[in-house]
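TASK: fixed-backbone design
INPUT:
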């Protein structure tokens, strides 16, 4: 791979993919709608000579084609809001695949674990796709679209991440907790049960694995799970975060009923209710396939990853 385009480059996952590609000496085109955010990304990388950007709309396949015509791989990191998933996710999939197919490109699609539903077996790529939620069913349709036989020229793969964290994270379930503790002077919230051990992947680790997978010709046409560094409970996360930030402010766990009540006034929180089962049960991804075919799993320890993440958040708080 010599050149790549990252769709949704200013998002949490897009930013770490951009960084990982640049670290490997790969030319990168950052694609997005906001000129302001793309310019900020360029500045974040000190106007790196291998980083450029293209403005475009993820739902307009022609703008994707214009940006991707000279690249080796398309990284699809763009997403839609929870409340727009039903109306826009398949349109997004149609757009990116139409562009990839017209150009005959490889495309790496970043997705989550909603397709699996409740965990009933080892969390490998063969886990049954039996979602019990609206979002999970839409994601199954999305997967079918990505791997549809309609696309004769594109080569696609899907990487699946659990919940995540990191300096670039924006919309993860852990984000309000870490932001609140980094601010230090206000009460924070934790979405879900504080006692449930859950899997979180550190985004820079995820980026390494995603690019490694993308670089293998025989990776395409398949699903790939991207596991975290192990399991950790909310109580353990808060303990580590308090040690790093010095914050003693209260952290309030939000139950499903509390989320449902808040959802009466907040459309985003309303959409979280149906996937609260993950905060109670968890879902653990297997990295066996990656280890067998790619190599060792990057596993940044939680203390280290949370330390980097919280220091980044504290810096942002200080410069507000």
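OUTPUT:
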């Amino acid at each position: 791979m010599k050149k790549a385009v990252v769709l949704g480059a200013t998002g949490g996952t897009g930013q770490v993919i951009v960084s990982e590609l640049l670290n490997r000496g790969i030319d990168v085109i950052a694609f997005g709608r906001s000129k302001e955010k793309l310019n900020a990304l360029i500045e974040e990388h000190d106007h790196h000579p291998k980083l450029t950007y293209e403005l475009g709309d993820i739902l307009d396949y022609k703008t994707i084609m214009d940006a991707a015509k000279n690249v080796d791989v398309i990284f699809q990191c763009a997403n839609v809001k929870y409340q727009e998933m039903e109306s826009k996710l398949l349109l997004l999939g149609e757009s990116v695949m139409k562009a990839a197919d017209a150009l005959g490109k490889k495309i790496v699609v970043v997705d989550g674990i909603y397709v699996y539903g409740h965990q009933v077996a080892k969390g490998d790529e063969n886990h049954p796709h039996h979602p019990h939620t609206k979002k999970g069913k839409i994601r199954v349709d999305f997967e079918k679209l990505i791997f549809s036989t309609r696309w004769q020229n594109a080569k696609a793969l899907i990487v699946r991440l659990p919940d995540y964290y990191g300096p670039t994270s924006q919309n993860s379930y852990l984000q309000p907790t870490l932001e609140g503790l980094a601010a230090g002077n206000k009460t924070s919230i934790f979405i879900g049960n504080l006692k449930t051990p859950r899997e979180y992947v550190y985004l820079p680790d995820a980026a390494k694995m995603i690019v490694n997978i993308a670089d293998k010709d025989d990776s395409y046409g398949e699903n790939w799970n991207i596991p975290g560094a192990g399991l950790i409970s909310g109580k353990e996360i808060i303990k580590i975060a308090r040690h790093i930030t010095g914050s003693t402010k209260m952290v309030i766990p939000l139950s499903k009923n509390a989320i449902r009540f808040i959802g009466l006034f907040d459309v985003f929180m309303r959409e979280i209710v149906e996937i609260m089962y993950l905060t109670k049960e968890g879902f653990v991804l297997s990295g066996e396939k990656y280890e067998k075919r790619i190599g060792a799993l990057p596993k940044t320890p939680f203390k280290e990853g949370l330390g980097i993440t919280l220091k980044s958040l504290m810096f942002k708080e200080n410069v507000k």
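COMMENT: The CA atoms of residues 101 and 154 lie 4 Å apart.
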